[in-house]
Each structure stands twice: as structure tokens, then as C-alpha cells.
């Protein structure tokens, strides 16, 4: 098997960036979920509340994070850390320390998306702070992440997407692209749902090893077109995922596996890397 896609999402819930390689870090791929938007109460804001966030494009240069939207001129945010007092912001039940970006970013967001984002600001994860991953699925280990929902990596497979799309089409619905699931690492696999039995993924030469920890429960973001922010009716693919019941012991819809890094921090992961799999029942 080999890696067919690598994706990073520098700003949580804005558009992702497909890359051919990335540095592996314990908290995720380089620059992944380093920023996020917060409301006036310093709570995280995502496409769950505001699907229009999907229309904001993101790019990285050597010096800037660049935000783009059809309504306004692009905005360049320096990669150098901003000056200012640390804020306490929340992601789900976690409280994280963050640095606020300038008011110019907030004004740009309003110009791009309208009054619905009035009062929102963008913050950057404070790297001197560590946000731990829940211990329940780490087999006694430890891991940390930035502003992801809970885990530093999300792994998905082509085989599972193919099976889901076959079920969608059979039910009279349109197929969905992989970007609905916003994975970091996409692995080529002919077998549907094989990743649910994988324990580890190891680069063929041993450069890195990932542990697959927990099925990823899916939310309404999977129903949002990641190009237009449109939300087609009915709420697919969630309904079909629930009917497929790929995780009989769990409630809800699941697709992909949350993962942590066991070995290889600082190494480079690439599209085309070949992987060896160890299964849970091996």
C-alpha cells in the first residue's frame, strides 16, 4: 500500500492544502491546525456553525499564511509569532493557550464573509503549551495535538471511500469526494474499512510509524460541499454511513481512523511512501 494524498489544514475549518510531502511532528503534520477562529467567548468556531468558512482558501509561503476569498483581496499573515498576551481558548472541553492575530485579520474576515463573523478573531496555538490527547485509547502512551478535534492525524483509505460511494449511488445519491472527510493521510487500499483493523502503519524503511487509535466519528461537516459551502439535502453521506454500520459497537457515523505518531518525529512523509500494516488481530 502507498500514500496517495497528504493534506494540511493550517486554519481549522478553512480550506485545506494538498501537499506532496510534510514534516511529521508529534502534534501532526507541519502547520496543521496551527490557527483557528474563535467567537467573543473565545470558543472555537467551525463549519458546523458556519459552512461559509469552507470558501476561504489558505496558502503557505516561506514567510506568510495567505488567506484568499473572492470578495476581497488576499491577506498575508506573518508566520513569525505575533506579539501580545496569551489568551485561553476552548476546543470542545479542552482549554488551550493561544496568541491572537491582529485586528486586521478580523476585519478581513468580516469583509470576506459578512456580519455573521462579526466579533470573531483568529488565534494561533501557543507552542509552549501542550494539549494532551485523551488517554483512553493510547494503550498507556501519551500524545498531543494543536487545534484538531482531538488527535494529531486522521487516516482514511480509498477503498472505504469507494465502498461508501457505491452505497450512495445505489441509494440514488451523488458520490462524495474525499475532501468531505478532511483527512491528513489517504492510503490506497482495495479493501473497504480495512483501516478499522489496522494497529500500526510503518513506512517500508522504518522512517516513521503511526498508531491507529480510534474510529473517527463524523459530523455535519461531511455534508458540506468543500468548494461551495453548499449543504445539499438530504444529509448525506451521514445517513448512508449510519446505515452501513461500519462500527457496530459504536453509535453514529464513522469514517477513517484517528492516529498518533509512535516513531519518526522530524522525518518527512511523502505521497508515494509505501507502508507496511500490522493488524489488531495479528
Automatic annotation (TrEMBL):
<dbReference type="Pfam" id="PF03473">
    <property type="entry name" value="MOSC"/>
</dbReference>
<protein>
    <submittedName>
        <fullName>MOSC N-terminal beta barrel domain-containing protein</fullName>
    </submittedName>
</protein>
<dbReference type="GO" id="GO:0030151">
    <property type="term" value="F:molybdenum ion binding"/>
</dbReference>
<dbReference type="GO" id="GO:0030170">
    <property type="term" value="F:pyridoxal phosphate binding"/>
</dbReference>
<dbReference type="InterPro" id="IPR005303">
    <property type="entry name" value="MOCOS_middle"/>
</dbReference>
<dbReference type="GO" id="GO:0003824">
    <property type="term" value="F:catalytic activity"/>
</dbReference>
<dbReference type="Pfam" id="PF03476">
    <property type="entry name" value="MOSC_N"/>
</dbReference>
<dbReference type="InterPro" id="IPR011037">
    <property type="entry name" value="Pyrv_Knase-like_insert_dom_sf"/>
</dbReference>
<feature type="domain" description="MOSC">
    <location>
        <begin position="127"/>
        <end position="278"/>
    </location>
</feature>
<dbReference type="InterPro" id="IPR005302">
    <property type="entry name" value="MoCF_Sase_C"/>
</dbReference>
Amino acid at each position: 500500500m502507498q500514500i496517495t494524498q497528504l493534506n494540511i489544514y493550517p486554519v481549522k475549518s478553512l480550506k485545506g492544502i494538498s501537499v506532496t510531502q510534510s514534516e511529521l511532528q508529534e502534534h501532526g503534520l507541519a502547520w496543521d491546525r496551527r490557527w483557528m477562529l474563535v467567537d467573543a467567548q473565545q470558543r472555537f468556531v467551525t463549519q458546523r456553525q458556519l459552512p461559509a468558512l469552507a470558501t476561504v482558501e489558505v496558502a503557505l509561503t516561506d514567510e506568510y499564511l495567505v488567506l484568499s476569498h473572492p470578495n476581497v483581496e488576499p491577506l498575508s499573515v506573518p508566520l513569525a509569532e505575533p506579539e501580545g498576551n496569551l489568551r485561553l481558548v476552548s476546543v470542545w472541553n479542552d482549554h488551550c493557550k493561544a496568541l491572537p492575530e491582529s485586528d486586521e485579520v478580523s476585519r478581513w474576515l468580516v469583509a470576506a464573509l459578512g456580519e455573521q463573523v462579526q466579533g470573531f478573531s483568529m488565534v494561533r496555538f501557543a507552542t509552549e503549551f501542550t494539549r494532551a490527547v485523551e488517554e483512553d485509547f493510547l494503550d498507556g502512551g501519551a500524545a498531543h495535538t494543536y487545534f484538531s478535534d482531538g488527535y494529531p492525524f486522521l487516516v482514511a483509505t480509498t477503498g472505504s471511500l469507494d465502498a461508501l460511494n457505491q452505497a450512495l449511488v445505489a441509494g440514488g445519491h451523488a458520490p462524495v469526494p474525499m475532501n468531505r472527510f478532511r483527512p491528513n493521510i489517504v492510503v490506497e487500499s482495495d479493501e473497504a474499512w480495512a483501516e478499522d483493523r489496522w494497529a500500526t502503519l510503518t513506512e517500508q524503511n522504518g522512517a516513521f510509524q503511526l498508531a491507529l487509535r480510534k474510529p473517527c466519528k463524523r459530523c455535519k461537516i461531511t455534508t458540506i460541499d468543500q468548494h461551495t459551502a453548499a449543504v445539499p439535502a438530504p444529509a448525506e453521506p451521514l445517513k448512508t454511513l449510519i446505515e452501513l454500520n461500519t462500527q457496530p459497537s459504536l453509535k453514529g457515523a464513522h469514517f477513517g481512523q484517528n492516529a498518533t505518531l509512535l516513531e519518526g518525529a522530524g522525518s518527512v512523509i511523502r505521497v508515494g511512501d509505501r507502508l507496511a500494516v500490522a493488524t489488531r488481530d495479528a
